[in-house]
Design brief:
The protein has a domain of about 120 residues: Glucose Permease (Domain IIA). It has four helices and 14 strands. The strands form three sheets. Strands 3, 6, 7, 8, 9, 10, 11, 12, 13 and 14 form a ten-stranded antiparallel sheet that branches. Helix 3 crosses helix 4. The longest helix is centred in the N-terminal third of the chain and has 82 residues. The protein starts with a strand and ends with a helix. Bound molecules: zinc ion. The site of zinc ion has 5 residues, from loops.
């Protein structure tokens, strides 16, 4: 063990008698400290360089972040615009369906929904979009209960309203439309319902009357024969009879009427509404 006394460092005289001059130790220390200093200086330089490079990286990252932020902003804006466009398109479609509802005189029946207008408090587009989509889907499902479309293939030869009677030649009210079709062509129910009456009358010939929901009734006349019984439940598209020439008829055709709460309506509107609604339904169900 080394111990010091005065300017001299000497080993334990009991163990060794070698003397070390303090100047050696001093030189060594100086040399060592110098080296250390040099090393620290070098390391400091190196660290400084690293700091500069890191600072540079931070600046680039900040710039990149800003760039990304603006890109994100732009995307959000574009997204918003797309959503607004979609909402606009859906609004148009909804008002189109509502127009059909009005034209068919069904405003009151569809009314509960109809009146829940989308005015008033501001709605975020996402919310409005969902509401409109639900609304339009409800309209379309309600329309499934309404007699729509043609009961048989063929062209319309006589329209609803006043016309010259083909038998008497006098002005008379025609309560339905006449569809000229091949003799024996199938006649189908235009909506779900229950057969209210089947029979024969001088005017209508063999006929079928079907009662539907919401006060609707459809009448199919001049049939060659009918294939349903009174009280029978029918689905839209079911064959109920075949085109004939019975009753006051000048050739094979179907006389088709739509009544609501006992009043006759223009079937042409309901025939056309099916195609008009199908377009909207396709768009809605595609989502
Ligand atoms: Zn007719």
């Amino acid at each position: 063990m080394l111990w010091t006394k005065g300017w001299y460092l000497r080993p334990n005289p009991k163990k060794s008698n070698i003397k070390i001059k303090p100047s050696y130790l001093l030189w060594f220390a100086l040399f060592f400290l110098g080296g250390l200093n040099l090393f620290l200086f070098w390391q400091n330089l190196h660290l400084k360089e690293e700091i500069v490079s890191l600072k540079r990286q931070i600046v680039t990252l900040e710039l990149r972040e800003k760039e990304l932020e603006t890109q994100l902003d732009q995307l959000e804006k574009e997204n918003e615009e797309l959503l607004q466009q979609a909402v606009g398109a859906l609004r148009k479609r909804t008002s189109y369906v509502e127009k059909i509802i009005r034209q068919l005189g069904l405003s009151r029946h569809f009314g509960a929904l109809h009146k829940k207008a989308l005015g008033g408090p501001y709605l975020p587009p996402q919310k409005e979009y969902e509401i409109l989509l639900e609304k339009i889907a409800t309209y379309i499902s309600k329309f499934e209960k309404v007699p729509l479309g043609k009961p048989c293939r063929g062209y319309i030869s006589s329209y609803y309203g006043y016309r010259r009677d083909p038998f008497t030649g006098r002005r008379a009210f025609h309560a339905g439309v006449d569809i000229v079709a091949r003799y024996g062509a199938p006649v189908r129910a235009t909506a779900d319902g229950v057969v209210y009456r089947v029979g024969y009358s001088r005017g209508l010939g063999r006929y079928v009357k079907i009662k539907h929901r919401h006060g609707f009734m459809t009448v199919y006349g001049h049939l060659r024969k009918y294939v349903v019984k009174r009280g029978e439940r029918v689905r839209k598209g079911d064959i109920i009879g075949y085109v004939g020439n019975t009753g006051r008829s000048t050739g094979p055709h179907l006389h088709y009427e739509i009544r609501r709460w006992g009043r006759s309506l223009n079937p042409l509107r309901f025939i056309r509404a099916e195609r008009r609604l199908a377009k909207v339904a396709k768009v809605v169900s595609a989502r």
